[in-house]
Write a structure and sequence with these properties.
Elements: E1 5-12, H1 15-26, E2 29-31, E3 39-42, E4 51-56, E5 65-71, H2 75-84, E6 88-95, E7 101-106, E8 112-117
Parallel strand pairs: 1-4, 5-8
Antiparallel strand pairs: 1-5, 2-3, 3-4, 6-7, 7-8
Amino acid sequence: MENAVVHFEIISSDGAKARDFYGKHFDWAFNTDNPLNYGATDTQSGDGNIRGGVADAFPGSSDVYVTFYISVNDIEKVLNDLLDDGSSIAMPVMKLPGGSKMAQFFDPFGSRIGLLQS
């Protein structure tokens, strides 16, 4: 599933209120039973739906944004290639529980995009 869009995030200044808003208007369901209170999102769209998250800004950050994540096989290589082509790092590579890795970059046009290596 390399290069497929596999996840989205809505990072808010108030994750609980954002989850209430999206749940009310779009019937999304959330699971915040995790150490970061990250609102893992089920858009209730059946097979093939893209999972996501609606959450507070990451600890130590006040960044709020909407982004999507692209699945890659070698996150470090892809990130280096992106940097060589005018992108910049928005969030360095970090390991997630379970062994996956994530990172975010700003494309040359200012959009924040995520990378996910399973």
